Structure formats: structure tokens, C-alpha cells
Amino acid sequence: MSSPVGTRGTDYEMVVERGKIAEFAAAMQSENPAYAGPGAIAPPTFLISSALWAPEGAAVDHGFDRRRLLHGEQEFTFHGPPPRAGQTLKVSEQVVDRYEKPGKKGGMMRFAVVVTEYRGEDGTLVAEARKTLIETAPRGGAS
Amino acid sequence: MTAQTPVQVGEKAEARDYGPLTTRMFVRYAGASGDFNPIHVDEEFARAVGLPGRILHGLWTMAQVARALSEAAGGPEHLKQLSVQFRGMGVPEQEVVVSGTVRELLDGRAIIDTVAEQAGEQIIRNAEAQLEL
């Protein structure tokens, strides 16, 4: 079942770990010293790895056919200093928009916008991630 | 474009090249990010679903955009917002070129238009970053 606009997934915890930051920085081939040591900060796109912390059922359901699924857009916003090693974040995602557009070859393309909030232990909004998922129109033009 | 030099509208940061990626490098990214979608790591699977081969994680390319902006801004803590549109398909065998231009200065922030290209094709377009000056 696809989640309607307003649906909020289950909250879960993400611990920002020093080793995971080092692993992520190495995977993006960055040698920036900001990502090393006890005071390591999270690289800008690091929060995408919160998916690894999500328990079963925490994610909202886009309801799209995986064979026609595209990741169209992605945004990260930081409301204060970047997350740091040792910090625990409370994560929750919500479907904030759904819309359709006619596909170039007929049929309808469907869009879903999902916002993930990352809050500190005192509830302060630390960062937000916003993704737009696209389900391309079915082949043959029938919607 | 460092904290010491005044940033000006229209200023272009020097383009930066990243990659190409070896199998070891993008498998490592899959593990780091948690995105094990087989179109990124399994050549046979990717071909079976009609792709030319394994394709880059869009978020890896976005990480390179973030990296270029962080370096230009004097540190990742200056990057307050980054939004991108993914287009086409990135391939691991080619370099990714990231370039950016200052569009405007607003409330102590520089708004940067950025693209990431492979062989002249944009794989990230209409990217916008806000850097705290």
C-alpha cells in the first residue's frame, strides 16, 4: 500500500559514529581532516546512511513499481553545525507531496516527495533530507 | 573561493575531477551508504534490466559535488544546503567533473549553481548550494 501525503514513518535512532564517518569519507575518497578523529563531523551526504539504522516498517511506502523507479532529486539542509561523532539523532520520515505529470511518451509519471528530519536529543532540528522519487510512465503509454 | 578572499557574483570555482571508480571503490560506497541496489554493484543484473552495465550511485556523485563545494568553501561546515537533480546515468569508468558559479550573495551566504558532468553529459544538473561565508 502506498503511503498518502502526511504519512509519518516510525521514529528511530541514528548514532553518528566516528568509524562510520571515517568509512563514508574513505568511500567518497575524501582525506579532509574534518572527518577524522574524536571530533569528526559528518560529511554533507552522510545522513543518507540513516537507512542502515531504520527498523523494519520505519520507512514510508512510496508504492512505486521498482522497475520504473528513479531517484529524481535530493536535498540536504543543515540548520546548525553539522552532526558530530557521538551525537544521537532522532530520525523520522514523512510523505509531504505526491503529484503526477504526463510522460513524454504517453502515460503518467508519478512523483513522491519524502522529507526526513534529523533531530538532536533535545528535539532541535539538526538537518533535513528531501528526496523526490519518480515512477516513470508504463511502457506502451497505458497508465 | 576561501574565507579569506571576498566572493563575487559570477565567480567560477576551478572545475574538479573525481574518479574513475574501481569496483573496490564503488562496492565500498555501497557499504558505507547502505545502498546495495544491484544496478550499482552487479554487472550481470544491471545488463539483465537493460542498463549498459553497473551505474554510479547518484548519491556518490552528489557526495563529489558536496566535496568540491566543501573544498572551495574552506570546510564542510560551511555547506548549509545542497539540492541536486539526477539526470541520465553515471558510469564508474569515467571521471566526474564538478563545476560551480556564484549566482548571488545573500545574508552572508553565497548561492552557487553547480553541475556534475561525465564526458560532457550532465549527470547532476540544476544543483544549488548555499555556502556560509
List the helices and strands and how they pair.
The complex is a heterodimer of chains A (143) and B (133).
Chain A: E1 12-15, H1 18-27, E2 69-78, E3 88-102, E4 108-119, E5 125-135
Antiparallel strand pairs in A: 1-3, 2-5, 3-4, 4-5
Chain B: E1 12-18, H1 23-33, H2 38-41, H3 43-48, H4 58-73, E2 79-86, E3 96-106, E4 109-118, E5 121-132
Q: What is the total tally of β strands of chain A?
A: 5
Q: What is the chain-wise order of helices and strands of chain A? A: EHEEEE
Number of helices of chain B: 4
Q: Biggest protein-protein interface?
A: A-B, 32 and 31 residues
Strand order of the largest sheet of chain A: 1-3-4-5-2
Outline of chain A, from the CA principal axes?
elongated
Structural class estimated from helices and strands of chain B: alpha+beta
Low-confidence stretches of chain B: none
Query: Mean of the pLDDT scores of chain B?
Result: 91
How many E-type strands of chain B?
5
Please, could you describe this protein's structure?
The complex is a heterodimer of chains A (143) and B (133). By secondary structure, chain A is mainly beta. Chain A is built from 1 helix and 5 strands; from the N terminus they run βαββββ. Chain A has one helix spanning 18-27, and strands at residues 12-15, 69-78, 88-102, 108-119, 125-135. In chain A, strands 1-3-4-5-2 form a 5-stranded antiparallel sheet, with no helix packed on it. The two termini of chain A are 18 Å apart. Chain B is an alpha+beta fold. A 5-stranded antiparallel sheet of chain B has the order 1-3-4-5-2, covered by helices on one side. In chain B, strand 4 (109-118) and strand 5 form a beta hairpin. The termini of chain B are close together. The mean pLDDT of chain B is 91. The A-B interface holds A 20, 23-24, 26-30, 32, 34-35, 41, 43-45, 48-49, 51-52, 67, 70-78, 81-82, 130 and B 18, 25, 28-29, 31-35, 49, 58-60, 62-64, 66-67, 70-71, 75-77, 79-86. Strand 2 of chain A pairs antiparallel with strand 2 (79-86) of chain B, so a sheet runs across the interface.
